[in-house]
Amino acid sequence: MAGSDADGRGPARRGGAARRPAGSSSARGGEAAAGRPEPLSTAEAAAEGAELPAWMRLYFYGMHGITLDVLVSAARRFARSPDLRMLGFSSPYRCLLHLLTHFALEQVYLQRRRCPSAFVFNFLLYPLAHVGLQTLAGRALLLGLGGGPGGAGAPGAGDLALQYLLALYHSQVFLRRFLRLRCRRQLQPRPGAAPAPAPAPAPPGARAPAAAGGRRRRPRGPRATEGAPSKGLPDLLRFLFYGMHGFLDEIFFTFFFDVLGQGDRATSGHTSLWSFFMYGSCSFVVEKLYFYLHYSRGWSTWQRVPVYVIFIYLWELSWGLGLRACGACSWDYSHYPLNFLGLITLMYLPGWIFLCVYQDLLSNALWRVQYIPTD
Predict the structure, then answer these.
(1) Residue range 68-105, pLDDT digits in tens
(2) What are 371's strand-pairing partners?
(3) Which one of 7, 115, 149, 203 is most buried, counting C-beta atoms within 10 A?
(4) What is d(CA 220, CA 224) in angstroms, rounded to the nearest whole number?
């Protein structure tokens, strides 16, 4: 699913498909953790192996920042000129700034208990830090793109009000829940003990492996600790992750596509708000196919990829037909060879194959992540 060209620069190029993080946790690690409750994440406690790795948090932060860029720019553009394509914008530069500013704001948020007044921290100190960092990041981006120190004036009242609201959302909604994620870790072998091979966690629908004598054993996935789910992220959170990842895919793809076509003039990529639902639902279904075909049927990667690709093309075609009927379709491949109705093209087949392989890695990584509900 592709974002369309924003201000009439031409038909949209689309990038990205389903994808998913890497590395599955072992069943034995989950069982070892079952006997004692583990802390939530780096933000909540510093127990070994419980926190999300720094690379994973940065990955989430960059993706979340791009999502906010797309939502805000699409809303502003729609307010100026209603367009059912709902185009939004961001760039790899902004992604880098977002992951750094989000990480810095996480460190600020962790100091909240040192403030004697929760109200002062939540509604004054944290918003000030958020607005200041975002303003500095915006200036740094302008300077980096050659805008010069006078390229933009001081932020207006509307911009400051928007940043204040985003700061409240960031501290009271996003970080409060994001920092309740934890990453299951493998059980460390005892000194002198021979390491035993760790089976992958059994996803939903996986058939039990056959034991000696032909008898099947029930798959031993990670057990739940107190208050923790016995599997990875809930389905709704996985859908949200894949929808945001769709924004990330298209922003990066259209940005680099424009760089190749326009050179230094390209400063941002584009996508459509509809891509959130297209990618979120498509990747969610492809993940289910992965769990079934890999764990239940034992299919290899190159046996699964053709199934993924066929499904993705059918999904893109069906969404394109529906959005075109409403005047909301943001892509048109009519100028490409090997296209069908201008909605799908074999020109992007190598990209879809790559993203299908990456999808399996994302699925495995998400399977290690758990969400601890609030009390």
Answers:
(1) 999 999 999 999 998 999 999 999 999 999 999 999 99
(2) 181
(3) 203
(4) 12
- The answer on pLDDT for 272 being more than 90 is yes
**Angstrom distance (rounded) from CA 232 to CA 218:** 18
**Pairing mode, strands 181-183 and 369-371:** antiparallel
Q: Please compute, for residue 193, the number of CA atoms within 13 A of its CA located in the half-sphere on the CB side.
A: 8
Burial of 164 (0-12, 13-18, 19+ CB in 10 A): middle
Q: At what angle do helices 273-290 and 235-262 cross, to 10 degrees?
A: 120
Q: Which residue has the tokens 């941002």?
A: 268
Query: Which tokens sit at 134?
Result: 């975002």
Reduce the DSSP state of residue 264 to 3 states and report it: helix
Residue 358 CA to residue 305 CA, distance in Å, equals: 11
Distance CA 50, CA 29 (A): 12
DSSP 98-124: HHHHHHHHHHHHTTGGGSS-HHHIIII
pLDDT digits (tens, 9 = 90+) for 293-319: 998 999 999 999 999 999 999 999 999
Show the tokens assigned to 292: 């079934």
Looking at the DSSP bridge assignments, the partners of residue 344 are 340
Count Cα atoms within 13 angstroms, Cβ side, for 81: 5
